[in-house]
Specification:
The chain has 210 residues and is of the alpha/beta class. It contains six helices and 13 strands.
Length: 210
């Protein structure tokens, strides 16, 4: 069972609709028991850092999320704000993040000569062998996308972390981590549910992870 976590922020139905188009059954839930029992979860998000974390705490979801991702080590995907919440801290707020991937979320500087927020289509360049075009392992989110990687972004902040956690970079005034991984935990700064065929392929690959 794939659960799209409802913590009050995010394009929940858009994600479920996209998954349905590729034949993947998913449910939206804020039930901690259902989240803990899921085979895999997607943590979406549109909004601010502190608000997202407060909603997770107020809905009693933190323990279920930790159990799923860190204790039982089941496939987990954070999208946009959901990706940012995977890290330790953010310049956008004061609350501690989920802390599943070591790193910090920072704002794009104003002196880069680019518009902030970063909004629109951008290419993602794979940085690691397990993110390349052919399926060498069961951990490949970018499998079978030989014609490039173009995704839709809307964000003012981005994650900074060790290179070993970065699967792909995008460029907006400077390179930034567009997709990350730590063990069973993945994060996409872009919106696969708005990214047409490449977003569909990435979600399908996630649904098929071992």
């Amino acid at each position: 069972m794939l659960v799209v976590v409802d913590y009050g922020l995010g394009n929940l139905q858009s994600i479920v609709n996209m998954l349905a188009r590729i034949g993947v059954s998913a449910v939206i839930s804020r039930d901690p028991a259902k989240i803990a029992e899921a085979d895999r979860i997607i943590l979406p998000g549109v909004g601010a850092w502190d608000s997202g974390l407060r909603q997770i705490e107020e809905r009693g979801l933190r323990d279920a999320l930790d159990r799923h991702a860190k204790v039982e080590k089941k496939p987990t995907l954070g999208i946009c704000l959901g990706m940012q919440l995977l890290f330790d801290a953010s310049d956008e707020g004061d609350r501690a993040g989920l802390g599943w991937i070591p790193g910090r979320v920072v704002k794009f500087p104003s002196d880069l000569g680019v518009k902030v927020p970063h909004m629109g289509w951008n290419d993602v360049v794979p940085t690691r062998e397990d993110a390349l075009f052919t399926r060498r392992t069961d951990e490949v989110l970018f499998a079978e996308m030989e014609d490039g990687f173009s995704y839709y972004f809307v964000h003012s902040f981005h994650a900074t972390c060790a290179e070993e956690h970065v699967l792909g970079n995008a460029f907006h005034g400077r390179p930034f981590a567009a997709i990350v991984r730590h063990e069973n935990i993945y994060g996409a700064q872009f919106h696969p549910e708005k990214s047409h065929k490449h977003g569909m392929r990435l979600l399908k690959n996630f649904a098929e992870l071992a």
